[in-house]
Amino acid sequence: MATVRIHGLLGAPNVHVLHDERGTYSGRMGYLWRAFRLSQMDWEYAVYQMRHLAFVQPSRVYRAVRYHQQTKNQWSRDDPAFMVLLAGMMAGTAVLWAVSAPGALTLGAVVGAVARRVVVELYVAGAVMATALWYVVNQWLVMRTRLTQNGSVRWRYGAAADGMRPVEWLYALDVHCNAFFGGVFVPLYVLQLPLLPLLKRSAWLSNGWYAGALSYYCYITWLGYDLLPGVESAHWLLAPIAIVALVALLLALVSDVNLARWITRR
Prior knowledge:
Blueprint: H1 25-33, H2 43-54, H3 58-72, H4 81-100, H5 107-141, E1 144-149, E2 152-157, H6 169-199, H7 203-226, H8 239-255, H9 259-264
Antiparallel strand pairs: 1-2
Helix pairs in contact: 2-3, 2-6, 4-5, 4-6, 5-6, 6-7, 7-8
Protein backbone atom coordinates (compact mmCIF):
# COMPACT_ATOMS: atom_id res chain seq x y z
CA MET A 1 0.00 0.00 0.00
CA ALA A 2 1.22 3.48 -0.84
CA THR A 3 1.95 5.45 2.26
CA VAL A 4 3.65 8.80 1.96
CA ARG A 5 3.79 8.94 -1.83
CA ILE A 6 0.59 10.93 -2.22
CA HIS A 7 1.73 14.14 -3.89
CA GLY A 8 0.61 14.41 -7.48
CA LEU A 9 -1.59 11.31 -7.20
CA LEU A 10 -4.81 12.90 -6.03
CA GLY A 11 -6.25 13.04 -9.51
CA ALA A 12 -7.41 9.43 -9.34
CA PRO A 13 -11.14 8.80 -9.87
CA ASN A 14 -13.17 9.67 -6.82
CA VAL A 15 -15.52 6.90 -5.74
CA HIS A 16 -18.17 8.11 -3.31
CA VAL A 17 -18.47 5.20 -0.91
CA LEU A 18 -18.60 5.74 2.83
CA HIS A 19 -18.28 2.13 3.89
CA ASP A 20 -17.46 -1.34 2.64
CA GLU A 21 -17.86 -4.90 3.90
CA ARG A 22 -15.52 -4.04 6.81
CA GLY A 23 -18.44 -2.18 8.36
CA THR A 24 -20.05 -5.54 9.13
CA TYR A 25 -19.39 -7.53 12.29
CA SER A 26 -17.20 -10.06 10.45
CA GLY A 27 -15.28 -7.23 8.80
CA ARG A 28 -14.56 -5.60 12.16
CA MET A 29 -13.46 -8.92 13.66
CA GLY A 30 -11.10 -9.51 10.72
CA TYR A 31 -9.66 -6.04 11.22
CA LEU A 32 -9.03 -6.67 14.91
CA TRP A 33 -7.45 -10.08 14.28
CA ARG A 34 -4.82 -8.35 12.16
CA ALA A 35 -3.43 -6.91 15.40
CA PHE A 36 -1.84 -10.33 15.98
CA ARG A 37 -0.10 -10.30 12.58
CA LEU A 38 2.57 -7.72 13.21
CA SER A 39 4.56 -8.50 10.09
CA GLN A 40 1.58 -7.72 7.86
CA MET A 41 0.82 -4.28 9.29
CA ASP A 42 1.83 -1.02 7.61
CA TRP A 43 3.95 0.56 10.32
CA GLU A 44 5.36 3.20 7.98
CA TYR A 45 1.90 4.58 7.23
CA ALA A 46 1.02 4.68 10.94
CA VAL A 47 4.24 6.52 11.84
CA TYR A 48 3.70 8.94 8.96
CA GLN A 49 0.26 9.84 10.30
CA MET A 50 1.45 10.15 13.88
CA ARG A 51 4.27 12.47 12.89
CA HIS A 52 1.96 14.91 11.16
CA LEU A 53 -0.66 14.75 13.91
CA ALA A 54 2.01 15.48 16.53
CA PHE A 55 3.42 18.42 14.60
CA VAL A 56 -0.02 20.00 14.04
CA GLN A 57 -0.34 19.05 10.38
CA PRO A 58 -3.52 16.91 10.39
CA SER A 59 -4.58 18.09 6.94
CA ARG A 60 -1.71 16.04 5.46
CA VAL A 61 -3.04 12.97 7.24
CA TYR A 62 -6.44 13.35 5.66
CA ARG A 63 -4.94 14.00 2.23
CA ALA A 64 -3.37 10.57 2.59
CA VAL A 65 -6.73 9.18 3.71
CA ARG A 66 -8.40 10.59 0.59
CA TYR A 67 -5.75 9.01 -1.63
CA HIS A 68 -6.19 5.72 0.23
CA GLN A 69 -9.93 5.82 -0.49
CA GLN A 70 -9.39 6.61 -4.14
CA THR A 71 -7.04 3.66 -4.62
CA LYS A 72 -8.63 1.05 -2.32
CA ASN A 73 -12.25 2.22 -2.23
CA GLN A 74 -12.38 2.38 1.57
CA TRP A 75 -11.95 5.20 4.03
CA SER A 76 -10.72 3.30 7.08
CA ARG A 77 -7.22 1.94 7.59
CA ASP A 78 -6.25 -1.50 6.31
CA ASP A 79 -4.95 -2.68 9.68
CA PRO A 80 -4.76 -1.61 13.35
CA ALA A 81 -1.06 -0.65 13.23
CA PHE A 82 -1.87 2.90 14.39
CA MET A 83 -3.79 1.63 17.44
CA VAL A 84 -1.16 -0.98 18.27
CA LEU A 85 1.58 1.67 18.23
CA LEU A 86 -0.58 4.00 20.28
CA ALA A 87 -1.25 1.27 22.84
CA GLY A 88 2.49 0.70 23.23
CA MET A 89 3.07 4.43 23.67
CA MET A 90 0.25 4.64 26.20
CA ALA A 91 1.81 1.81 28.20
CA GLY A 92 5.19 3.56 28.12
CA THR A 93 3.80 6.86 29.33
CA ALA A 94 1.83 5.07 32.05
CA VAL A 95 5.10 3.66 33.39
CA LEU A 96 6.75 7.09 33.27
CA TRP A 97 3.87 8.71 35.15
CA ALA A 98 3.88 5.92 37.74
CA VAL A 99 7.65 6.23 38.27
CA SER A 100 7.44 10.00 38.64
CA ALA A 101 4.54 9.86 41.11
CA PRO A 102 5.31 10.67 44.76
CA GLY A 103 5.38 7.81 47.19
CA ALA A 104 6.60 4.23 47.03
CA LEU A 105 6.56 2.54 43.64
CA THR A 106 5.10 -0.97 43.49
CA LEU A 107 4.71 -3.44 40.65
CA GLY A 108 0.98 -3.53 41.24
CA ALA A 109 0.72 0.22 40.83
CA VAL A 110 2.63 0.11 37.54
CA VAL A 111 0.53 -2.76 36.16
CA GLY A 112 -2.66 -1.02 37.25
CA ALA A 113 -1.57 2.23 35.59
CA VAL A 114 -0.75 0.47 32.32
CA ALA A 115 -4.04 -1.45 32.35
CA ARG A 116 -6.03 1.71 33.06
CA ARG A 117 -4.32 3.67 30.31
CA VAL A 118 -4.49 1.00 27.62
CA VAL A 119 -7.69 -0.90 28.39
CA VAL A 120 -9.90 1.79 29.88
CA GLU A 121 -8.69 5.09 28.43
CA LEU A 122 -7.66 3.86 24.98
CA TYR A 123 -9.84 0.87 24.13
CA VAL A 124 -13.02 1.28 26.17
CA ALA A 125 -13.25 5.07 26.11
CA GLY A 126 -12.13 5.06 22.47
CA ALA A 127 -14.86 2.63 21.46
CA VAL A 128 -17.44 4.71 23.32
CA MET A 129 -16.33 7.99 21.73
CA ALA A 130 -16.09 6.46 18.24
CA THR A 131 -19.56 4.95 18.60
CA ALA A 132 -21.03 8.22 19.85
CA LEU A 133 -19.56 10.21 16.96
CA TRP A 134 -20.51 7.48 14.48
CA TYR A 135 -24.11 7.69 15.69
CA VAL A 136 -24.27 11.49 15.72
CA VAL A 137 -22.81 11.84 12.23
CA ASN A 138 -24.98 9.12 10.70
CA GLN A 139 -28.09 10.33 12.48
CA TRP A 140 -27.86 14.08 11.97
CA LEU A 141 -24.97 15.11 9.71
CA VAL A 142 -25.22 12.76 6.73
CA MET A 143 -27.29 13.95 3.76
CA ARG A 144 -30.53 11.95 3.60
CA THR A 145 -33.33 11.40 1.09
CA ARG A 146 -36.88 10.57 2.16
CA LEU A 147 -38.38 7.83 -0.02
CA THR A 148 -41.91 6.48 -0.13
CA GLN A 149 -42.57 2.98 -1.47
CA ASN A 150 -45.87 1.13 -1.26
CA GLY A 151 -47.20 3.60 1.26
CA SER A 152 -44.21 3.22 3.59
CA VAL A 153 -41.58 5.82 4.37
CA ARG A 154 -37.93 5.07 4.81
CA TRP A 155 -34.75 7.11 4.93
CA ARG A 156 -31.79 6.59 2.64
CA TYR A 157 -28.43 8.09 3.54
CA GLY A 158 -26.83 10.12 0.78
CA ALA A 159 -27.74 10.55 -2.85
CA ALA A 160 -28.56 7.25 -4.54
CA ALA A 161 -26.79 8.37 -7.73
CA ASP A 162 -23.50 8.69 -5.83
CA GLY A 163 -23.83 5.41 -3.97
CA MET A 164 -23.39 7.12 -0.61
CA ARG A 165 -23.95 5.04 2.51
CA PRO A 166 -23.70 5.60 6.28
CA VAL A 167 -20.27 6.30 7.71
CA GLU A 168 -18.58 3.05 8.67
CA TRP A 169 -17.75 2.46 12.33
CA LEU A 170 -14.11 1.63 11.64
CA TYR A 171 -13.62 5.02 10.02
CA ALA A 172 -15.19 6.66 13.08
CA LEU A 173 -12.67 4.74 15.19
CA ASP A 174 -9.83 5.95 12.95
CA VAL A 175 -10.96 9.56 13.31
CA HIS A 176 -11.14 9.24 17.10
CA CYS A 177 -7.68 7.63 17.26
CA ASN A 178 -6.23 10.43 15.14
CA ALA A 179 -7.86 13.09 17.32
CA PHE A 180 -6.91 11.29 20.53
CA PHE A 181 -3.27 10.99 19.52
CA GLY A 182 -2.90 14.62 18.43
CA GLY A 183 -5.25 16.29 20.90
CA VAL A 184 -4.93 14.16 24.04
CA PHE A 185 -1.96 11.80 24.02
CA VAL A 186 0.77 14.19 22.86
CA PRO A 187 -0.16 17.27 24.93
CA LEU A 188 -1.67 15.61 28.02
CA TYR A 189 0.16 12.29 28.31
CA VAL A 190 3.59 13.20 26.94
CA LEU A 191 4.25 16.95 27.11
CA GLN A 192 2.31 17.58 30.30
CA LEU A 193 4.65 15.43 32.40
CA PRO A 194 7.77 17.63 32.01
CA LEU A 195 5.61 20.77 32.00
CA LEU A 196 3.63 19.81 35.11
CA PRO A 197 5.61 21.95 37.60
CA LEU A 198 4.97 25.00 35.41
CA LEU A 199 1.30 24.19 34.76
CA LYS A 200 0.59 23.70 38.46
CA ARG A 201 1.70 27.27 39.21
CA SER A 202 -0.98 28.96 37.11
CA ALA A 203 -4.62 27.99 36.69
CA TRP A 204 -4.78 30.20 33.59
CA LEU A 205 -1.87 28.45 31.93
CA SER A 206 -3.03 25.01 32.97
CA ASN A 207 -6.64 25.45 31.87
CA GLY A 208 -5.52 27.08 28.64
CA TRP A 209 -3.31 24.07 27.96
CA TYR A 210 -6.22 21.68 28.43
CA ALA A 211 -8.55 23.86 26.39
CA GLY A 212 -6.05 23.97 23.53
CA ALA A 213 -5.56 20.19 23.63
CA LEU A 214 -9.29 19.42 23.56
CA SER A 215 -9.85 22.04 20.86
CA TYR A 216 -7.24 20.31 18.71
CA TYR A 217 -9.11 17.04 19.30
CA CYS A 218 -12.30 18.67 17.98
CA TYR A 219 -10.46 20.18 15.01
CA ILE A 220 -8.97 16.83 13.93
CA THR A 221 -12.39 15.21 14.35
CA TRP A 222 -13.98 17.87 12.15
CA LEU A 223 -11.34 17.37 9.46
CA GLY A 224 -12.02 13.65 9.42
CA TYR A 225 -15.75 13.93 8.90
CA ASP A 226 -15.66 17.01 6.69
CA LEU A 227 -13.61 14.94 4.26
CA LEU A 228 -16.46 12.52 3.60
CA PRO A 229 -18.84 13.13 0.70
CA GLY A 230 -22.43 13.43 1.82
CA VAL A 231 -21.61 14.65 5.34
CA GLU A 232 -23.32 17.99 5.76
CA SER A 233 -22.94 20.53 8.56
CA ALA A 234 -19.72 18.97 9.81
CA HIS A 235 -18.91 22.40 11.24
CA TRP A 236 -21.14 21.51 14.20
CA LEU A 237 -18.31 19.24 15.35
CA LEU A 238 -16.32 22.40 16.04
CA ALA A 239 -18.98 23.74 18.44
CA PRO A 240 -17.44 22.07 21.53
CA ILE A 241 -14.37 24.29 21.11
CA ALA A 242 -16.33 27.33 22.28
CA ILE A 243 -17.77 25.35 25.19
CA VAL A 244 -14.34 24.07 26.25
CA ALA A 245 -12.84 27.55 26.09
CA LEU A 246 -15.70 29.00 28.15
CA VAL A 247 -15.47 26.30 30.82
CA ALA A 248 -11.70 26.68 31.09
CA LEU A 249 -12.10 30.45 31.45
CA LEU A 250 -14.79 30.17 34.13
CA LEU A 251 -12.83 27.60 36.11
CA ALA A 252 -9.79 29.86 36.22
CA LEU A 253 -11.74 33.08 36.77
CA VAL A 254 -14.40 32.05 39.26
CA SER A 255 -13.08 29.09 41.25
CA ASP A 256 -9.35 29.19 40.52
CA VAL A 257 -9.45 25.47 39.62
CA ASN A 258 -6.18 24.24 38.16
CA LEU A 259 -7.02 21.37 35.79
CA ALA A 260 -3.48 20.02 35.71
CA ARG A 261 -3.33 19.78 39.51
CA TRP A 262 -6.90 18.48 39.80
CA ILE A 263 -6.70 15.77 37.09
CA THR A 264 -3.20 14.49 37.90
CA ARG A 265 -3.84 14.69 41.66
CA ARG A 266 -0.35 16.10 42.24
